[in-house]
Amino acid sequence: MTNPAKSEEVPKPHMTEPVAPARRDLLPGLAAIALYLLVLAGVIILGVAGGRHYPILFLIFAGAFIAASAGLILLLRWAWALALAAVLLLAGYNLWIFSMQHQPPAIVQGLLNLVFFLYMIRTEVRAKLR
User: Fold this and answer.
1) Domain-by-domain residue ranges, the chain?
2) Sign of the alpha-carbon torsion through 64, 69, 74, 77
């Protein structure tokens, strides 16, 4: 009789496959936040170009939103910090607008920004960044 435990082959070190480096896949939530920041930058640019809604200094915010969006796609930590600050400040601003002027769109955008903030501070999201 043969022993089944002895009949199994133990893989030799030269027979094992090389270990692939850990993949850094883009999370769908980060892609959505990056797209959201691009849309906000576009709205600001159109508002400045129209001359009615925003002063010209708001183009600084548009540039920061575009940089944060591109950096989030590349999973960069500085872009995560910039986007985190942007969504937190926008959440506070929109919730303040709702409390002062009772505009329903402000509460919707404020809560959306708050959800984005809570998503971005999760440990799984921070672990993907470099």
Assistant:
1) 27-128
2) positive
